[in-house]
Amino acid sequence: MILSAEALHWSARGVPILRDVSLAVAQGETLGLIGPNGSGKSTLMRLLAGVLRPDAGTVRLGGRPMAAMRRREVAQLLALVEQQAETADRVTVRDAVELGRTPWLSMLRPWSAADDAIVAEALAVVEMAGFAARDWATLSGGERQRAHIARALAQQPRVLLLDEPTNHLDIHHQLSILRLVETLPVTTVVALHDLNQALNCDRLGVMHRGRLVALGRPWEVLTTALLRDVFGVRAAVLTDPTDGARVIRFHAAD
Ligand SMILES: Nc1ncnc2c1ncn2[C@@H]1O[C@H](COP(=O)(O)OP(=O)(O)OP(=O)(O)O)[C@@H](O)[C@H]1O
């Protein structure tokens, strides 16, 4: 398993936020994390990324306890794109994306043309090549989100953690980012609110009140009973006549 969590607990000022969460993500897999607002998705992402330390339990990256790894080692293997992540300094988009190369640079391995190429490629795949010289502060919310993803890609991680990556994006860019996530040769954990988009993940984990209450293949997890009990909605499954794909339509619970 490339990334795993065993019995994670995390509290904020004595209030339990995450309780007894265990999961394992296989190499190359896309695991979707879903759950209502405040259910613990972002907290779990931050624990998996090593940004937060669990009060109890262990996160392993490539089989090794993350707590025993150096920050640089973790950053060479794993990148996190947080929700509403901000870059406060006055920088260009290219500067911000170049930061993704930091874990790979050293006195013996200074910036090179290869790094320029990696940064250019990362900007291109999120359709931001034309924005490289722009001031970060002038970007729209969706352009920032795509530039943050470019920064994470420039890091060339083996594991990519994306917290609501389609937030702020128009429908074209939502679909292109999700397609990118599916096709990237990396292991991905992605928190999503759109349950129809989540259906494309290999597996889904469902957070509810700080616990992981379901984990499995999307159609096995998203039962009408779970949608009612966890999300408080009534669901109807429809079939798209153009390609036979199933989609879920949601109604307020009766
Ligand atoms: N540092 C903190 N101090 C106090 N409470 C916190 C802290 N961090 C998170 N929480 C609380 O923990 C709960 C889980 O938050 P989290 O951000 O993980 O939820 P989420 O599932 O990502 O929600 P959303 O879908 O709204 O983004 C929330 O009730 C939140 O208010």
Strand content range: 25-35%
Number of helices: 9
The helix fraction, in percent, is: 25-40%
Give helix and strand order, one letter per element, not per position. EEEHEEHEHHHEHEHEEHHEE
The major pleated sheet works out as: 6 strands, mixed
Average pLDDT value? 93
- What Rg is obtained from the alpha carbons, in whole angstroms? 19 Å
**What is the strand tally?**
12
Ligand names: adenosine-5'-triphosphate
Largest sheet: spatial strand order: 6-7-8-3-9-10
SSE class:
alpha/beta
Q: What is the rounded distance between the termini?
A: 42 Å
Shape, principal axes of CA atoms: globular
As residue ranges, the low-confidence spans are: none
InterPro entries: AAA+_ATPase (IPR003593), ABC_transporter-like_ATP-bd (IPR003439), P-loop_NTPase (IPR027417)
Keywords: ATP-binding, Nucleotide-binding, Translocase, Transport
Domain ABC transporter: 3-234
Function: Part of the ABC transporter complex HmuTUV involved in hemin import. Responsible for energy coupling to the transport system.
Descriptive terms for the model:
globular, single chain, 254 residues, 4-stranded antiparallel sheet, binds adenosine-5'-triphosphate, ABC_transporter-like_ATP-bd, nucleotide-binding, transport, alpha/beta, P-loop_NTPase, 12 strands, translocase
What can you tell me about this protein's structure?
It comes from Roseomonas haemaphysalidis. Part of the ABC transporter complex HmuTUV involved in hemin import. Responsible for energy coupling to the transport system. One of its GO terms (molecular function) is ATP binding. Residues 3-234 form the ABC transporter domain. With 254 residues, the chain is of the alpha/beta class. It has helices at 41-49, 71-77, 93-98, 113-125, 141-154, 171-183, 195-198, 218-221, 224-231, and strands at residues 3-12, 15-25, 30-34, 56-61, 64-65, 78-81, 159-163, 187-191, 203-208, 211-216, 233-239, 246-252. A six-stranded mixed beta sheet has the order 6-7-8-3-9-10, with helices on both faces. It has a four-stranded antiparallel beta sheet with strand order 2-1-4-5, covered by helices on one side. β4 (56-61) and β5 (64-65) form a beta hairpin. α4 (113-125) crosses α5. The termini are far apart. The structure holds adenosine-5'-triphosphate. Adenosine-5'-triphosphate binds at residues 12, 17, 35, 37-43, 207.
